[in-house]
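Project outcomes to date are best conveyed with an example. Our students and postdoctoral researchers have been running inverse folding experiments weekly, and each run begins with a structure described purely in tokens. The record below, which covers 186 residues, was selected by the lab manager from last quarter's runs and is presented without edits.
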């Protein structure tokens, strides 16, 4: 995984001449590094969703620069840990549109994912390889089609909410021992 780092070197120089006494001058130099780190694959994945949906939040205005500042999310709905995006929580903001099918797969450390209470339509996203996922909330949307069978392979899944959508087909044979909450009505 690539790590992108950009440095903004801020040098502020104050020059103060003591003209009253004419004998001494002071020149304090104040400098600081502002380091910006992000993982390009994670950011690119988030750009894909930003550009696929509309919402009541101005994601184009807000999701700029790096998504994380170490353990703090800089973007609305983004939760971070050690510069990685670990949570994506966008609830009740009238997210409208269809998700790019595989856009989440590069957010490798994603643990919490919620799109609860929006207007997302089309198929549920592919969550293959997201081995850290613990909570997945897609309830109260307009998703259609089957529950992807690869959801049964998420090894740390604890909570999965899919109710209040327009899903069909069979419920795959979930048997993760971690799974304590599963809500779905087909
Ligand atoms: C984006 O939104 C978050 C949370 O609402 C806010 O803290 C942050 O300052 C915003 N950033 C920009 C660039 O607007
Ligand atoms: C769902 O989102 C709408 C805004 O789009 C909000 O008014 C409503 O309270 C939310 N409902 C729930 C159950 O959170
Ligand atoms: C994931 O990241 C890799 C490397 O940047 C890129 O080639 C690939 O297209 C990305 N996958 C998705 C699903 O966006
Ligand atoms: C995921 O959310 C749960 C509760 O909503 C929280 O306890 C947990 O710390 C979160 N995980 C991460 C990695 O943010
Ligand atoms: C989901 O993504 C994985 C890895 O990219 C791929 O192997 C699998 O075929 C995809 N599943 C579907 C149903 O497209």
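After processing, the design step wrote out the following sequence:
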């Amino acid at each position: 995984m690539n790590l992108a780092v950009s440095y903004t070197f801020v040098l502020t120089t104050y020059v103060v001449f003591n003209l009253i006494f004419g004998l001494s001058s002071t020149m304090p130099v104040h400098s600081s590094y502002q380091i910006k780190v992000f993982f390009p694959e994670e950011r690119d994945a988030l750009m894909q969703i930003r550009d696929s949906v509309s919402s009541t939040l101005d994601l184009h205005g807000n999701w700029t620069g790096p998504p994380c500042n170490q353990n703090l999310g800089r973007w609305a709905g983004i939760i971070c840990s050690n510069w990685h995006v670990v949570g994506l929580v966008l609830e009740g903001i009238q997210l409208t549109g269809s998700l790019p099918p595989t856009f989440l797969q590069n957010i490798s450390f994603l643990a919490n994912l919620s799109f609860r209470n929006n207007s997302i339509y089309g198929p549920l996203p592919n969550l293959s390889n997201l081995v850290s996922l613990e909570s997945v909330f897609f309830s109260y949307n307009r998703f259609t089609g089957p529950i992807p069978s690869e959801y049964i392979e998420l090894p740390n899944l604890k909570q999965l909410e899919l109710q209040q959508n327009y899903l069909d087909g069979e419920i795959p044979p979930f048997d993760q021992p971690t799974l304590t909450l599963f809500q779905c009505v087909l």
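The CA atoms of residues 31 and 108 lie 36 Å apart. The chain has two domains: 1-37, 39-183. The training component of this project remains on track.
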